[in-house]
Amino acid sequence: MPLTLVLCIFIIIAASFAHRKWYNAKLRQKRLATPLSDREWAIIIDQVPLCQKLPHDLRAKLSGKINLFLHQVEFLGCNELEVTEEMELSIAAQACLLIVNTDTWYDTLQTILIYPGAFKSISKEYDGYVVREREVVRLGESWARGPVILSWAHAAEGAFVDDDGHNVVLHEFAHQIDGLSGHTDGAPVLAKDHKFSEWQRTLNEAYNRLIFNTEMGRKTFLDSYGATAPQEFFAVAVEVFFERPTALKQEEPAVYAQMSKYFQLDPSKWD
Ligand SMILES: [Zn+2]
Questions:
Q1: CATH match for 27-115+142-180 among 3.90.226.10, 3.90.1150.10, 1.10.3720.10, 1.10.472.150
Q2: Ligand 1 midpoint to CA 144 (Å)
Q3: Which residues lie below 8 Å from residue 61, measured CB to CB, with a gap of 6+?
Q4: Which of 4, 21, 173, 249 could pair with 95 in a Cys bridge, judged by C-beta atoms 3.0 to 4.6 Å apart?
Q5: How many angstroms does the Cα of residue 21 sit away from the middle of ligand 1?
Q6: CATH code for the part of the protein at 185-271
Q7: How many angstroms separate the CA atoms of 28 and 21, rounded?
Q8: pLDDT tens by residue, 10-66
Q9: This prediction's pTM
């Protein structure tokens, strides 16, 4: 094949890739700039009252991000559940609330599976070369670079009661953003001006405090489930950061400050 022909084919392929990239970026910007309708926003406020507390400038951002999220993600009902617009908007709104003011995005998320209620899952436990599998009942699950699985009954209640510090959707999407670093370990990718050493020291200290108090049988502010692993501590702290911000600021001020810096939000002032 003559060299000029090879060069032409290479240029055409490169131009086609560049055009596709440009088109996708344009489409993304358009979707981020397209607000939800008043009707959709009313459904969100009804399902996720926490969104009503958002400052006005963040509402517009949230609206565009929900729009982009809904174009990217497919919702599938399990056990004959029929997925409704309310379910999609509620879950999308809560997922996007976590990333409303940062550049973080759910790049790898394509599917959300929704069960009507708690669902059965297989838990694997590793003991050296031995892997034990057992059936567990879950309210939610998040797979790194894979789907989020939710019980709608618990997702709806978690969103509706927005001041008890328990929210399965925020919890599972905290795992999703944690996993974007390549490891779901309670250490998400931080902004350039956010020191990892400070994040790690603050969260580790609070995590160890929670383990100690849980082992001592003391009543703890953060759910004791957070004492099971650093990634669970992060997810539990995220639930409380959004649903009981003032109390978290009081009980664990350093954790609140780190979370506030990470999410670029100060929910303690939303009321
Ligand atoms: Zn978890």
A1: 1.10.472.150
A2: 12
A3: 100, 101
A4: 173
A5: 35
A6: 3.40.390.10
A7: 11
A8: 788 877 777 788 888 888 999 898 889 999 999 999 999 999 999 999 999 999 999
A9: 0.91
